[in-house]
Automatic annotation (TrEMBL):
<dbReference type="InterPro" id="IPR035919">
    <property type="entry name" value="EAL_sf"/>
</dbReference>
<keyword id="KW-0597">Phosphoprotein</keyword>
<dbReference type="Pfam" id="PF00072">
    <property type="entry name" value="Response_reg"/>
</dbReference>
<dbReference type="InterPro" id="IPR050706">
    <property type="entry name" value="Cyclic-di-GMP_PDE-like"/>
</dbReference>
<dbReference type="GO" id="GO:0000160">
    <property type="term" value="P:phosphorelay signal transduction system"/>
</dbReference>
<protein>
    <submittedName>
        <fullName>EAL domain-containing response regulator</fullName>
    </submittedName>
</protein>
<feature type="domain" description="EAL">
    <location>
        <begin position="152"/>
        <end position="406"/>
    </location>
</feature>
<dbReference type="InterPro" id="IPR001633">
    <property type="entry name" value="EAL_dom"/>
</dbReference>
<dbReference type="InterPro" id="IPR001789">
    <property type="entry name" value="Sig_transdc_resp-reg_receiver"/>
</dbReference>
<dbReference type="GO" id="GO:0071111">
    <property type="term" value="F:cyclic-guanylate-specific phosphodiesterase activity"/>
</dbReference>
<feature type="domain" description="Response regulatory">
    <location>
        <begin position="19"/>
        <end position="139"/>
    </location>
</feature>
<dbReference type="InterPro" id="IPR011006">
    <property type="entry name" value="CheY-like_superfamily"/>
</dbReference>
<dbReference type="Pfam" id="PF00563">
    <property type="entry name" value="EAL"/>
</dbReference>
<feature type="modified residue" description="4-aspartylphosphate">
    <location>
        <position position="69"/>
    </location>
</feature>
Amino acid sequence: MTEIKSTQCQTSTLPMDKKILVLEDHTFQRWFLVNSIKQLGYQSVLEASSGQEALAICQQQSIDIILCDLELPDMDGIEVLRKLSEQKKALSIILCSAVDESVLCTVSKMVEASNLVLLGQATKPIEKEHLSQLLNKSVCFSCASNQQNPGFQPSLIDIQKALENKEFSVHYQPKVCLDNGQWTGIEAFIRWPHPVYGMIAPNRFIPIAEQDDIINALFLYIADQAITDLANLHKQGWQGTVAINLAAKNLVHFETMQAMVNLVADSEVSSKDIVLELTERQALPAQAERSLKAMARLNMKGFKLSLDDFGTGFSSLQQLDYFPFSEVKLDRSFVDNCQSSIFNQTVIEFCMTLAKRLNLNVVFEGIEDLETLNFLRTFQYGSAQGFFIAKPMPYEQLLEWHQQWQLQNPIQDI
């Protein structure tokens, strides 16, 4: 269910007006990074050889991205990042250091927990291609921010009116088989193109809806559209599944689940083509007994149940034993940097072994580059989802995307 899912940038139109600061005390390495960035087309590149100098520059100028070394002469990079976070500025960070990988991962988590945006990490010497990928991520963050109105705070009444006026739309992100690259499924995401305030991010209105029974109406709105679109895709020859995100309130609300069962019964698709996704934090609510009854009933009727964000909670394995899941979606935090992180590789290998033993499908979400896809495809098991494969898109664009994917499918030759 992971997003920046809302949008994706096309790298052919990347704006190169980002102001970038390179914080590196080693003269040659600083020179190398500055020149590499300029060769990529970014012209506004500043440099600092110490933490104090970097902080002073950030106070005086509006910096977009900082390439931050962690080992500095006056104060370490961790302290610099802490002070930058206190400035409450919109900064994107790329960690670039020769410290131990475990230290780099720990600092990455620290940045993610702050108000800074972590674009990624790289060990020295950083390759130019990797640097380009990390910088491109910043533009995608900017595109997402620019398309979503930051000032509008929707209320329950606003959401209710939007439902009545049918302002919401549904976009779909394709999933492909890691073994052969075949298009196997789509995940449905709600969109709110507000007629006055523009695109409203889901994280601005979903939490509000979850506080009220309106979340049930919102779920059925998505389910109805997703089932209709899936039926149309099946008529055009594609036989795949659609995944729909399920809130805990939806699951334990009998009338909502019955309404969804009826939607499928009245359609031309089968319940086996519907995947219902619950995140770890939702899958084991206080009313666990009611959840179990609901999931058992859905499972009996043929619906597939998926545990999203797998591995981020303390009860991951317990939930697989307790609830009738048929799929796990590995959290993107383990997919990021999996080709270079021993820890992430170990987690992935463990999950693959577990899934095969339990006969569970695995979905790797958040795949943003070919290197990550190539690493994961060596397992030849499970499904892949992410911006590298496709961004969430309107139903009308899915078949056109599929034609393009068939032509350039990077998995088909394995």
